[in-house]
Amino acid sequence: LVSRLRAAWLSGRTRPMEYRVAQLEALGRFLEEKQQDILDATAADMSKPPFEVELSEISICRSELNHTLNNLGTWMKDKHVEKNWATQLDSAFIRKDPYGVVLIIGPWNYPINLLLVPLIGAIAAGNCVVMKPSEISKNVERLVAETLPTYLDKDCFAVVTAGTEETTRLLENKFDYIFFTGSPSVGRIVMTAAAKHLTPVTLELGGKNPCYVSDTCDVKNVARRVAWGRFFNAGQTCVAPDYVLCSAEMQEKLLPALREAITEFYGPNPQESPDFARIVGDKHFQRVQALLRSGCVAIGGQTDAETRYIAPTVLVDVQQDDPIMQEEIFGPILPILTVASTNDAIAFINARERPLAIYVFSSCKQVVNQVLEQTSSGGFCANDTIMHMTLTSLPFGGIGKS
Amino acid sequence: NPYAGLVSHLRAAWLSGRTRPMEYRMAQLEALGRFLDEKKQDILDATAADMGKPSFEAYFTEILLCKNELNDTLNNLSHWMKDEHVDKNLVTQLDSAFIRKDPYGVVLIIAPWNYPIHLLLVPLIGAIAAGNCVVVKPSETSRNTERLVAEMLTCYLDNDCFAVVTAGVQETTRLLENKFDYIFFTGTSSVGRIVMTAAAKHLTPVTLELGGKNPCYVSDTCDVKNVARRVAWGRFFNAGQTCIAPDYVLCSVEMQEKLMPALREAITEFFGSNPQESPDFGRIVGDKQFRRIRALLCSGRVAIGGQTDEKERYIAPTVLADVLPSDPAMQEEIFGPILPIVVVANMDEAIDFINARPRPLAIYAFSCDSKVVKQVLERTSSGGFCGNDTLMHLTLTSLPFGGIGNSGLGKYHGKFTFDTFTHHRSCLHRNMGLETLNTLRYPPYSQQKLGLLTATFEIKRKGMCTLL
């Protein structure tokens, strides 16, 4: 497979802009024509509400696609650069070359988005691509494996379905770039495999995204924005607020506001709401459920193993050593830890691995700037959650373990 | 872990925020400038002792090019450091959206021996400019320069934030067990693999400036005399110990005939009739390297040069003719003053020859016909490319310098060095109020809400009309 794609790449087939535009437009048709199949597959995999799928899987991909199609001509152009005395009469420019044959490994939580958005860029840049959708989101994996190749040039683009073993074998091959989205532990494995071939990588990983809520804020707005970010896709979002840091007084105010927001969103019994997703698999369900033994359940806490339902839950009096603070939650549980001050919150954050996102809620600009300046993270959003990810003009990625 | 204390000392300094203010970084950079000025003679002496580097060459590459990078950085640092505000969509119109230029933290720079000051300082300039704390490891192979850097560089810099470590292979392996926030390595591909594997344990991003065999295609339509001088200059500078030196020539048998006398003339013009007596020709850095390069001489036939002197580690500027792909000189990066010529029938064969091999740091093409140059550029892949000269693309700070595939990953020079050592952090600062703007996205979900939401924030394809 790899040598077939490499031969196609060496033939120069993916280089002309017209070719790339045609492939990208075909991706657009995939999103349109297979819209219902995507809704059905993601519903089957993790009961994703159609609204969430439309927003986070289809619409976002369409935006990236259109943004790329609108700008590809400009992006592809040679970029002429400033010259010095000795080179005044020369032509000095940066040529935008493809890498060659690239590998994209997608995760299961936004299985269309996190496969297609990298794919759009890889195709736009003129590469041949091997895609490996996640085997955990089984229905989407099948959809992608069976239908996506019919839209694309099979000589240059391929979908590989693989579990852990086969993915390890796949990684033995030499790729010219590897784009991986998943956990830090697998990220290490991918980078180590890439190192054997000196293959450059992009690793979109995860971590525990802290959410500091200062004492000066509109509690009601904070509660809605944090609840939205935490419970979207039943918490299975890499940039979801993972835990809250606030004063004891703020915790007192936040709880009723969070309770109100959750009821507003999902009704008095979220298990009956069509707008709340489920955990993707039994193993994951058990893992997340075990984290409930941390602090005290203040809101929610109910679970149903048969449907892999975990209620939108808020935990209070959580301690640093509790199970829920030892790993990325990736579920609909929001622990609250109390800190005495902004400085303590910053120290808490800096004592831990650098996360994909840091959130701060404060009406006070100085507080926001202080947290921004004294911490380090992939991205940062003040007074909301997740939204920084929706701007295509902002680079999205992590730092350190994220 | 012998280096744990050092790394945590630097990490504490970084967490204290000391390296963040622009004034601090400028002061450290200006101190580097003073190092280059005040220690100029020591640098010339050390590189002369290490590899017989002619002082002209040392001044140009180790001092002048470094000062260029330094001044470019000092001139532009405040601009580079600024938050970069970005385009917003309808939903975020009233927000502040920007890219914050954060340092990575504690970074490691491992430098090679061939341009031991330049390839240490230029990354260091960017690392400091970007606000990092830095551990620098100069090469133990260029022993005199290593000692100079270890003893003198630290006097100019803040020792709480910047450290020089002298280490051989063993100790470097121990050093790499530590967690760094970025690793910048210049050296061979095989060691590059080791560095990246070590970095992978900590998920540390890397820049690897490696090497390879840089092909130099000479078409039949060219000014042979100019080609000979430019190729000879690039090949024999620093006695061939240059990562982007033209490693081998590809040309037709007729061009080989024409090139030979022109190369002979150029070499004589540059180094005189006995290059061993020229003050302008370097030596090989060590006995091991000398023996390795000498062994490559049994490839093809020696058309020019070929003399060696083990005591001085002198290898004459040499051109080998009729070299075959299977010859020793074609099995590894030469990194010495030997230029093999491999005959090909035409440009297509040259391109196929290049594409059958690992992608090099640089590809050179000489032709009066710009279509030929364009074709080689379009149909090959390499770190960088230069038409009708050698090495020169490296001297423009506005061009990113780096490899691809076996020749490396990442790029630097000028602003690209600053960007290499900078974490581009996406920031969105929204309003605490204005909650009505957000209500469309909250459950309970409805088709109507979805329609409004996608209408407001989805990017549309330009030039398409929708008739309602």
UniProtKB/TrEMBL annotation, chain A:
GO cellular component: cytoplasm
Keyword NAD tagged: yes
Keywords: NAD, Oxidoreductase
Domain of life: Eukaryota
Active-site residues from the entry: E204, C238
GO biological process entries: aldehyde metabolic process
Keyword Oxidoreductase: yes
InterPro entries per record: Ald_DH/histidinol_DH, Ald_DH_C, Ald_DH_CS_CYS, Ald_DH_CS_GLU, Ald_DH_N, Aldehyde_DH_dom, Aldehyde_DH_NAD(P)
UniProt-recorded name of the protein: AL3B1 dehydrogenase
Organism encoding this protein: Herpetotheres cachinnans
Gene encoding the protein: Aldh3b1_0
From TrEMBL, chain B:
Start and end residues of each Aldehyde dehydrogenase domain: 18-425
Active-site positions on this chain: E209, C243
A Gene Ontology BP annotation from the UniProt entry: aldehyde metabolic process
GO cellular component, one term: cytoplasm
GO MF: 3-chloroallyl aldehyde dehydrogenase activity; aldehyde dehydrogenase (NAD+) activity
PROSITE patterns: ALDEHYDE_DEHYDR_CYS, ALDEHYDE_DEHYDR_GLU
Top-rank taxon: Eukaryota
Keywords linked to the UniProt accession: NAD, Oxidoreductase
Family: Belongs to the aldehyde dehydrogenase family.
Name recorded for this polypeptide: AL3B1 dehydrogenase
